[in-house]
């Protein structure tokens, strides 16, 4: 029973870390898109 909890805890920890990496990558993509929009709007003025 205890091994099951340890295994589930390890899986949960891995999923949490993977989720953080995904969110970080998404944040970079959104930031880059925002910079491009700012540059394009500055050039249009």
Q: Mind explaining what this structure looks like?
A:
The chain is an all-alpha fold and 45 residues long. Helix content is 96%, strand content 0%. The chain contains one helix and no strands. The chain has one helix at 2-44. The longest helix is centred in the middle third of the chain and has 43 residues, at 2-44. The protein is rod-shaped.
Tags for this model:
mainly alpha; 1 helix; signal; 45 residues
CA gyration radius, whole angstroms = 20 Å
Q: Give the percentage of residues in beta strands.
A: under 5%
Computed structural class: mainly alpha
Counting DSSP H or I runs of 4 or more residues, the number of helices is 1
Amino-to-carboxy terminus distance: 66 Å
Helix and strand run: H
Low-confidence runs of at least 5 consecutive residues: none
Q: Which overall shape is indicated by the principal axes computed on the Cα atoms?
A: rod-shaped
Main pleated sheet: none
- Percent of residues in helices: over 70%
Q: What's the total number of strands?
A: 0
How would you state the average pLDDT, rounded? 82
Signal peptide: 1-23
Keywords: Signal
Mind sketching the topology for me?
Layout: H1 2-44
Give a brief outline of the structure.
The protein has 45 residues and is mainly α.
């Amino acid at each position: 029973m205890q091994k099951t909890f340890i295994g589930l805890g390890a899986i949960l920890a891995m999923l949490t870390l993977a989720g953080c990496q995904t969110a970080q990558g998404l944040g970079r993509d959104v930031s880059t898109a925002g910079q491009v929009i700012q540059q394009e709007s500055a050039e249009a003025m």
